[in-house]
Design a protein that fits this description.
The structure is a single chain. By secondary structure, the protein is an alpha/beta fold. The chain has one domain: Thiamin diphosphate (ThDP)-binding fold, Pyr/PP domains (Rossmann fold), CATH 3.40.50.970. The strands form two sheets. A six-stranded parallel beta sheet has the order 2-1-3-4-8-7, with helices on both faces. Helix 1 crosses helix 2. 40% of the residues are buried.
Length: 193
């Protein structure tokens, strides 16, 4: 298994201007790794990161969209896999950070902990490509190809469950009017007339 922060550092290094949609614990850690105006925070809407990512991928078809989902979050909205596969956005890369717990809510185990095959579910739903990674070296080696493949692409990243990181629910960085304006300003140049 790998550490979430180490996998995020690899994604940051390969991001290349992509919009990143992150949820809950992933959002808090991603902000520490890469505080960028093109980060879309999906906190307060558990299960919706993949749907938010899909909307952005459809609305900005020339822009790469990366979703940093949690295993517990995806379980809240499994139907998103079929919706994404049906829409088939070739610019969407969906990472599920699989630590086997609802880490943002106290570390309670998810249903089917250790038995769920998230990549298998995405493959069965119709994603163009789906894989599971347990080691950082293999993930890092495959990451450029994952980000360049026509999507939707799915990758389950098996990470070590750890102590919950400090969750800074400061309204100003999550959902403030300034944060929304910053995101809109960053996205505006990406829009086609």
């Amino acid at each position: 298994m790998m550490q979430r922060m180490a996998s995020f550092e690899k994604i940051r290094d390969a991001r290349d201007g992509a919009i990143v949609v992150a949820t809950y614990t992933s959002a808090f850690e991603w902000r520490r790794v890469d505080p960028d105006p093109l980060n879309f925070v999906s906190v307060g809407a558990m299960g919706q990161a993949s749907s938010h990512g899909l909307g952005l991928a459809i609305g900005l078809p020339e822009q790469k969209v990366i979703v940093l989902d949690g295993d517990g979050s995806l379980l809240m909205n499994m139907s998103t896999l079929t919706t994404i596969a049906n829409e088939a956005p070739d610019n969407l890369v969906h990472f599920v950070i699989e630590n086997g717990s609802y880490e943002a809510n106290g570390g309670h185990p998810i249903p089917s902990q250790g038995r769920m095959d998230f990549a298998g579910m995405a493959r069965a739903a119709g994603y163009a490509h789906a894989a599971t990674y347990e080691g950082l070296n293999q993930f890092a080696a495959d990451l450029p190809e994952l980000l360049s493949r026509p999507g939707p692409v799915f990758a389950a990243l098996k990470v070590e469950a750890g102590d919950a990181p400090p969750l800074d629910y400061d309204y100003d960085w999550l959902h403030s009017a300034d944060r929304r304006r910053e995101f809109r300003k960053a996205v505006k140049p990406l829009l086609k007339d």
